[in-house]
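Query structure, 256 tokens:
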């Protein structure tokens, strides 16, 4: 039997000793095709699909910087509104439908947050994807590192034996066709039996979202408090509720 440690050792030797394999080591500004002394170093922002400023050509990876610039404010404010509307109860300006994953909290609602919950932060990720129909992408994720989730966090996956049985069955059966399906947003928008909480700076929200959700009155000490009722990116239990949901597991077949 070959142990996992042996496989890891061989993989590490291949990656560390083969000079033709590019590995980002210190992420200095250069090109992977320019390799002095076999050191294929590169700027990590190049691979993060950042936003390039239309005038000076500056690389921008921070949302708050985009909304302060008059050249980019309108575009990225709309993108933010679309993302928040998608997570909340919709965005009237872009016509985005809501998923009711997050709800804005009033001052009275904030007082009811359970004492065993930590109000975590939100991380806003901006991305430019030219291949998408809407290339200006904003994603709001929860800071899961601050959340102390008492339940089970493991993701149940098929083991190697199950994968081999499936592949062997396909290859050994004459005229067999195999199809793989990518389920979009499989882990998102699944109802949670334990709500979590997050806060965001009011200054980050575009004016039309502030007006639509009455966030000016709901904000406390400059922050908008949100109750997370469905799974969004970043939450520690973002996989388990999806696997337990009958809507997500209906029609699946268990391999003996």
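Result returned for the query:
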């Amino acid at each position: 039997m070959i142990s996992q440690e042996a496989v890891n050792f061989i993989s590490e030797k291949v990656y560390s000793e083969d000079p033709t394999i590019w590995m980002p080591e210190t992420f200095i500004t250069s090109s992977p095709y320019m390799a002095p002394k076999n050191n294929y170093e590169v700027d990590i922002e190049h691979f993060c699909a950042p936003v390039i400023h239309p005038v000076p050509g500056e690389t921008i990876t921070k949302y708050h910087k985009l909304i302060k610039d008059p050249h980019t404010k309108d575009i990225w404010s709309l993108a933010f509104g679309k993302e928040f509307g998608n997570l909340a109860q919709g965005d009237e300006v872009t016509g985005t439908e809501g998923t009711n994953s997050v709800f804005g909290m009033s001052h009275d609602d904030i007082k009811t947050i359970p004492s065993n919950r930590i109000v975590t932060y939100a991380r806003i990720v901006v991305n430019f994807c030219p291949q998408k129909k809407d290339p200006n992408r904003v994603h709001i994720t929860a800071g899961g590192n601050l959340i102390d989730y008492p339940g089970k966090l493991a993701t149940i996956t098929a083991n190697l034996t199950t994968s081999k049985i499936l592949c062997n069955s396909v290859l050994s059966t004459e005229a067999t066709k195999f199809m793989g399906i990518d389920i979009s947003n499989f882990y998102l928008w699944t109802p949670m039996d334990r709500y979590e909480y997050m806060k965001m700076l009011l200054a980050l929200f575009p004016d039309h979202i502030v007006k639509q959700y009455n966030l000016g009155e709901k904000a406390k000490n400059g922050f908008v408090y949100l109750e997370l009722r469905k799974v969004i990116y970043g939450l520690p239990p973002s996989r388990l509720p999806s696997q337990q949901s009958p809507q997500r597991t209906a029609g699946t077949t268990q391999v003996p």
